[in-house]
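Figure 6 in text form: structure in, sequence out.
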């Protein structure tokens, strides 16, 4: 049974008062019609279905070669039809963009070309924060295009640029439910800033894209313009505020592509690497290594990858975390081989919520391949992967042979994923995971999931079971995991509720499951408010309520309960703030050590306590910005005070740096301790193809300084040279614990 104390009840009453004004009739209004008030007081009405059908653009075959110089001075550009009249979706939904954007499209046998003129009355005030690949598109002026090449109103490619020619690309699946920003395509751009705006010429080779092999192509297409100094987003095919460019079912149409073919899509990418490693108490050792990645387009939608002697030495190290719970922490995947097309392997649906949901169960988690539980690399001998789309089906196949290293046995790992599109925007799927290690040990997982989307309403669910030798799954319970959820969202409201369970014998060695033997109920309710009286500086408020409860399957007793009452503020310049209170209740069955250095423990027992917090992030596009978070309140049988401070500075698009300091002061009945975690990032961009990145961290828990310095040159498309320096030092003695210097060269050959 869920219990609330007097404070909780008072906060609920206040929150309900703030959320007031909800009515079934308002909630049921059509998502495809909007009527708002313009600045001059006149009514502006948009029928989004009609607007989408009207947004049609003809591609014209270029009469001669196109030189990428950002000037649009070739005669062919003048004859190409123009996409214009962009419409805001934020901050003033339905109004014309402050400065319009003009887009023309040309093509030849090899590539698709976009000619962009982004009008701007004050080009000297353009916000350009970065030059690196996959830059932060939310913190910069920019232009984005989405291409739905199969015209299925679900999936697509996103390409983005800023006025200095920085590039971002991504794959998008199921209208943004899965977005893979780590996908890398071969394409190029040139830009030029003029007195009345900025220009861009974008070239995307057809071999970069997958599409049907037909004489005439019809694709879905949409464009986004970001005017960052007023934090404005506008679109060619207009979108309601709750959607973004990924909503390709509301995109316009690109016509007129004739006689083009997807490329052979055959790529060879060999690498050579050398490393010098020094560990404390041992002499320096050297190593020379080489390997190969091959990519082959089996069909226009399916790609087959092969890798031999895979190496991830250039990948950035993890950002450190300090664990104050009795459960495992989640660290994201960063290795390119596993990130490309990773959305296909996503199982189920992600749950709404903040930090309390970051460690939720994931059925397939690729970090369990080639990495130990401690994050140390395990050698991969070879692997293959088949991913992509074929008709109504999305297909994913991975097979990896992992070599033995230390206590880790050699293992063959397989992941199979099949998903079928049904109805207008829904899908059903199945997954099978298998790990066969040396000897009699095996681990298998089989599951099915479904996601249904009907306008504002989404329904999702899954069921999975694991299979392992009895010795690997002690305990009673069962080996199943299930979940069912409902999500409803319009411009003003969002509701989400779900129920899940994980059996005590659920043993997923290729996934992430921090809790076993539990039932879980979660909910999230929030309302978006845009008060006109303060619209000059405040854009949106979002009061919301979160609930998350785990109970034990064996006796129904409480394990953890979280209830949060939060109030979020988004300001017109892009800054945001949040205040709230979180109420925790936890049953600790066995004492655990929360801090090894001081020996502080949390004793067995039941604990209930509130935590109060405040968060503030200033405009991240400004030259100087600040992130601050303060938490205070009881903690188990004592108290906790924590603060996080993160200043950032940007000299220009070439140099930016940030420091984040987290301090926790915790006092319990068994002891007291203070933890400090410092994370420093320094980035210098020589240009759009040469970068230096430094990540320096200090963790008072293990008394270590760690450094990760990377120098990267993109010497040809998708071909890199890396020089990496990694070091760990003991903070107290200054003694070197480990050091590695790595040089790696890759060279892509595409056909």
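Output sequence:
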């Amino acid at each position: 049974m869920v219990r609330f104390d007097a404070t909780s009840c008072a906060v609920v009453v206040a929150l309900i008062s703030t959320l007031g004004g909800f009515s079934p009739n308002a909630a049921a209004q059509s998502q495809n019609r909007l009527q708002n008030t313009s600045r001059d007081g006149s009514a502006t009405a948009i029928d989004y279905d009609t607007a989408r059908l009207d947004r049609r653009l003809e591609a014209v075959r270029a009469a001669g070669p196109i030189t990428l110089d950002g000037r649009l001075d070739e005669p062919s550009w003048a004859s190409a039809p123009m996409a214009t009249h962009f419409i805001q979706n934020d901050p003033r939904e339905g109004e014309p963009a402050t400065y319009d954007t003009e887009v023309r499209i040309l093509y030849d046998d090899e590539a698709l070309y976009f000619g962009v003129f982004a009008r701007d009355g004050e080009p000297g005030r353009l916000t350009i924060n970065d030059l690196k690949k996959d830059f932060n598109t939310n913190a910069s002026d920019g232009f984005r295009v989405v291409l739905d090449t199969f015209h299925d109103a679900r999936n697509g490619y996103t390409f983005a640029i800023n006025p200095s020619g920085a590039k971002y690309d991504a794959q998008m699946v199921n209208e943004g439910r899965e977005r893979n920003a780590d996908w890398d395509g071969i394409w190029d751009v040139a830009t030029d800033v003029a007195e009345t705006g900025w220009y861009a010429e974008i070239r995307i080779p057809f071999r970069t894209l997958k599409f049907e092999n037909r004489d005439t192509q019809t694709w879905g297409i949409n464009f986004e313009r970001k005017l960052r100094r007023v934090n404005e987003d506008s679109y060619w095919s207009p979108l309601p505020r709750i959607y973004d460019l990924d909503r390709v079912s509301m995109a316009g149409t690109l016509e007129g592509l004739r006689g083009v073919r997807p490329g052979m899509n055959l790529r060879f990418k060999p690498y050579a690497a050398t490393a010098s490693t020094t560990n404390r108490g041992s002499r320096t050792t050297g190593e020379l290594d080489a390997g190969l990645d091959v990519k082959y387009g089996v069909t226009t939608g399916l790609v087959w990858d092969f890798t031999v002697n895979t190496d991830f030495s250039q990948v950035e190290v993890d950002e450190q975390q300090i664990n104050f719970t009795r459960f495992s922490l989640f660290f994201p995947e960063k290795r390119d081989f596993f990130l490309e097309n990773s959305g296909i392997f996503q199982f189920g649906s992600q749950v709404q919520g903040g930090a309390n949901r970051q460690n939720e169960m994931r059925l397939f988690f690729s970090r369990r391949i080639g990495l130990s539980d401690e994050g140390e690399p395990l050698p991969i001998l070879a692997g293959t992967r088949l991913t992509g789309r074929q008709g109504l089906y999305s297909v994913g196949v991975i097979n990896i042979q992992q070599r033995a290293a230390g206590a880790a046995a050699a293992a063959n790992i397989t992941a199979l994923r099949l998903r079928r599109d049904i109805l207008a925007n829904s899908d059903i799927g199945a997954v099978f995971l298998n790990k066969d290690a040396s000897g009699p040990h095996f681990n298998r997982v089989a599951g099915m999931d479904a996601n249904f989307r009907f306008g504002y309403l989404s329904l999702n669910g899954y069921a999975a079971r694991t299979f392992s030798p009895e010795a690997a799954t002690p305990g009673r319970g069962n080996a199943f995991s299930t979940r069912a959820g409902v999500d409803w969202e319009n411009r003003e409201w969002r509701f989400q509720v779900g129920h899940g369970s994980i059996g005590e014998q659920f043993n997923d060695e290729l996934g992430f499951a921090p809790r076993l033997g539990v039932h879980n109920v979660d909910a999230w309710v929030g309302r978006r408010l845009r008060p006109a009286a303060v619209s000059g500086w405040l854009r949106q408020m979002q009061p919301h309520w979160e609930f998350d409860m785990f109970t034990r399957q064996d006796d129904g007793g409480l394990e953890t309960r979280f209830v949060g009452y939060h109030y979020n503020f988004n300001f017109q310049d892009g800054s945001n703030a949040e205040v709230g209170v979180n109420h925790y209740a936890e049953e600790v069955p066995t004492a655990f050590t929360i801090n090894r250095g001081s020996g502080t423990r949390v004793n067995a027992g039941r604990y209930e306590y509130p935590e109060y917090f405040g968060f503030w992030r200033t405009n991240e596009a400004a030259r100087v910005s600040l992130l601050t978070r303060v938490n205070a309140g009881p903690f188990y049988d004592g108290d906790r005070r924590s603060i996080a401070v993160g200043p950032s500075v940007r000299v220009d698009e070439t140099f930016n740096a940030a420091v984040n300091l987290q301090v926790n002061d915790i006092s319990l009945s068994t002891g007291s301790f203070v933890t400090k975690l410092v994370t420093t990032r320094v980035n210098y961009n020589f240009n759009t193809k040469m970068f230096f990145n430094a990540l320096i961290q200090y963790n008072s828990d293990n008394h270590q300084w760690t450094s990760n310095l990377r120098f990267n040159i993109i010497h040809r498309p998708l071909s890199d040279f890396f020089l990496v320096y990694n070091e760990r030092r003991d903070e107290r003695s200054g003694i070197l614990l480990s050091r590695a210097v790595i040089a790696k060269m890759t060279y892509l050959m595409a056909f």
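Caption detail: Residues 25 and 490 are 12 Å apart (CA to CA).
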